[in-house]
């Protein structure tokens, strides 16, 4: 029951952005409408933003845009830039959910129900930028007793080579890096990053937390 309630909290708190066309002007910030709902998983399906986020609509959108999808639940969101703190860029839905990234790697989340409070990911960024083969990532979570739980992962990195990657904005030539990590309890996480020719993580599959699991992140527009 606790897991069910936690998942309902995730479904009820995750901010979704419904993108709708604004006539010949295409998509604009005024076309983003936030949706909060506690009925997802009971009698309503999460909206499918893939139907509205066409390459043409993305090209007409005014400003940077991320697309995020939670694997398993099918929940999707569009995020636009929020505050920046040094190298850390926060991306927000209009409902208050957010992801914070550094070099394309998630370092925090908010309003997802089982949030990543913070993460040390400097070794991950080094592996993506400079080809390091091993590193450590440290995740911090709040327990039900409001104490801090720390999980340290030892990670190996594989330069998987070059391939054509696909996002909602179209295809691009990518260098893929795979990340395989274990913590002391034997939990394994496997992340992948697709990096374009300018060094931007244009697409990734990243693990956030035991409840949320993996998310797909696509950087659709800079």
How far the N terminus sits from the C terminus, by CA atoms, comes to: 42 Å
Please trace the helix and strand order, writing H or E for each element.
HEEHEEEEEEHEEEEEE
Report strand %: over 45%
User: From the alpha-carbon coordinates, what is the Rg to the nearest angstrom?
Assistant: 17 Å
Number of helices: 3
Strand arrangement within the widest β-sheet reads 7-6-5-4-3-14-13-12-11-10-9-8
Overall residue-averaged pLDDT value: 82
Low-confidence stretches: 1-43
Q: What global shape is seen?
A: globular
The level of helicity is 10-25%
> What is the total tally of β strands?
14
> Pairing-aware structural class of the strands and helices?
mainly beta
Main beta-sheet strand count, sense and barrel state: 12 strands, antiparallel
Please give a structural write-up.
By secondary structure, the chain is mainly β. The chain is built from 3 helices and 14 strands. It has helices spanning 2-13, 55-60, 122-130; strands at residues 16-19, 32-35, 65-70, 76-85, 88-92, 98-102, 105-110, 118-120, 134-142, 148-167, 170-183, 188-195, 201-209, 213-221. Strands 7-6-5-4-3-14-13-12-11-10-9-8 form a 12-stranded antiparallel sheet. A two-stranded antiparallel ribbon has the order 1-2. The longest helix has 12 residues, at 2-13. The chain is globular. The chain starts with a helix and ends with a strand. Mean pLDDT is 82; it is low at 1-43.
Could you give a short description of this structure?
With 222 residues, this protein is mainly beta. The protein is 12% helix and 50% strand.
């Amino acid at each position: 029951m606790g897991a069910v309630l936690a998942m309902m909290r995730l479904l009820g708190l995750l901010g979704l952005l419904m993108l709708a066309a604004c006539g010949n002007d295409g998509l604009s910030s005024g076309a983003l409408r936030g949706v909060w709902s506690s009925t997802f998983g009971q009698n309503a399906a999460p909206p499918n933003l893939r139907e509205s986020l066409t390459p043409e609509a993305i090209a007409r959108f005014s400003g940077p845009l991320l697309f995020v999808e939670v694997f398993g639940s099918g929940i999707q969101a569009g995020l636009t830039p929020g505050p920046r703190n040094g190298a850390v860029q926060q991306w927000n839905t209009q409902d208050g959910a957010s992801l914070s990234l550094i070099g394309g790697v998630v370092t925090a989340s908010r309003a997802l129900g089982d949030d990543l409070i913070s993460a040390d990911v400097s070794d991950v960024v080094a592996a993506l930028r400079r080809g390091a083969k091993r590193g450590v990532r440290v995740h911090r979570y709040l327990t039900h007793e409001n104490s801090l739980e720390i999980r340290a992962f030892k990670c190996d990195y594989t330069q998987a080579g070059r391939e054509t990657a696909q996002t909602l904005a179209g295809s691009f030539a990518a260098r893929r890096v795979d990340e395989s990590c274990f913590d002391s309890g034997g939990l394994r996480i496997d992340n992948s990053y697709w990096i374009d020719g300018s060094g931007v993580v244009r697409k990734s599959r990243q693990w956030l937390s035991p409840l949320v699991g993996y998310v797909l992140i696509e950087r659709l527009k800079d």
